[in-house]
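User: Modeling request: complex.
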Amino acid sequence: MKQLRFWMLAPARVWMALFFAAPLLIVVAYSLLTRGDYGGVEQPTTLENFTRLFDPLYGAILLRSLVIAIVATAFCLLLGFPMALFISRSGRRKNLYLQLVTLPFWTSFLVRTYAWLFLLRDTGLINTLLIKAGIVSSPLPLLYNNGAVLLGLVYGYLPFMVLPLYATIERMEPALLEAAADLGARPFAALRRVTLPLALPGMFAGSVLVFIPCMGAYLTPDLLGGGKTVMAGNLIQNQFTTARDWPFGSAVSLMLMAINMLLLLPMMRRSEDVL
Amino acid sequence: MKRGLSLYAAVAFAFLYVPLFVLVVFSFNQSRFTIWTGFSLDWYRAVFANTEMAEATWNSVVIAVTSSALSAVIGTLAAYGIWKRRSPLLTGSLYLSLVTPEIVTGISLLAFFQLVFRVVHLTLGLYTVVLAHVAFSIAYVAIVVTARLRTLDPSLEEAAMDLGATPWRAFWRVTLPALAPGIIAAALLALIVSFDDYVITSLVAGVDSETLPMVIYAIARRGANPTINAVSTLIVVGFGALIIISERVRQR
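Assistant: Request completed. Predicted assembly structure:
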């Protein structure tokens, strides 16, 4: 049995070691090296790549990513909580609604981002309708700004928030709400003082699931931000392609992972077993 | 409060579906602008006449099928091994792979391949994309299969072994058939994730191995184009069919 288990684990161990762990270790090593003349990496080892992160130019990008990711997570919470509550209270239709939430999530992320590009552009549906209705005379600049990026992220990751929230609300004892009502609590008071505190683990779990991909977002800021709204992900991509400064790109990558971990660990503990 | 909640939910569901609906509707529009001028299949004709897209689609299919098959096998074996006895290092790296931003996975693999190519004389191609996709899909498969394993009664295997089956035979004849629906669902999930991936793929694909998301992305970066609406509609329909199949299989 022991031998069988060894051979069963071997392929995954080898694959993850070669194509996940080793590449990450290379990034760690590169982050401590100097940029080569032709784009590669060179000796000597230095911490300069990390000190550069605090340069106002790059610090602003990291800060902007953090703010956008936090605001996107907050919007997902605001939008997702009532949705989860609604689904958990819809009796026989529960599964149908649940599938309606997950279905767009399984349709291509690229397609869903493009859908907003199509809606928000100058000749898109929103601007066309606004002009036809005579509300505006020239198209509003809806695309290629922070707002568009935020919208794209909330749209992309909302299901990640709804599912764990639904899981915690669903596990709640219905008798608790009845007890609250018996004691004279109005529905809203019961929601605020019973459901909301009990749903906290789901909120933490959902926030982790939304925050992490938002923080590392590359595709959404690139397509909907149009190069103006640069987030950490775009900075990394840029350093590895056009700028060809691999050591600095590696340092940004590690910083991004460090921020995620820093927020992830305490949140994971509080999300109990929802994740 | 109840009516307020229903109204809120209706708005939220509209938020999820209206953009996709608009995208699909205007793929059948004559004009390239967002004003309905009449039904037409011109954009679909443009998609099917586009040889670059056809080639990229074929690449995407080859990559998705190969990497989902590989990751289904590797991920299932790993989930079973971990289920038998904990393996903190492997479990840890699988979880870490899930929370690592795609862009970081992508550039780390790019750096890795460039380093390897200094010793081995190879270049980036379709196979580097497959290697990368399997690396991030193993975790998905392992999670789905583990969920299925948890519903399994371990005494079934013990019974098989008491009756003289070897551990491998007990796995092959007893556990694996019970896991099959989970494995198929996991493989479909890996297939979709692989077919859709742009960030990692664009970094590790060779010059001759463009995928469909790469072609779509290149066009979309220059702005909206109804051809993309048409190909997006085809993708949404294709994915939808796969998801419905996978749900059916999972619930069996």
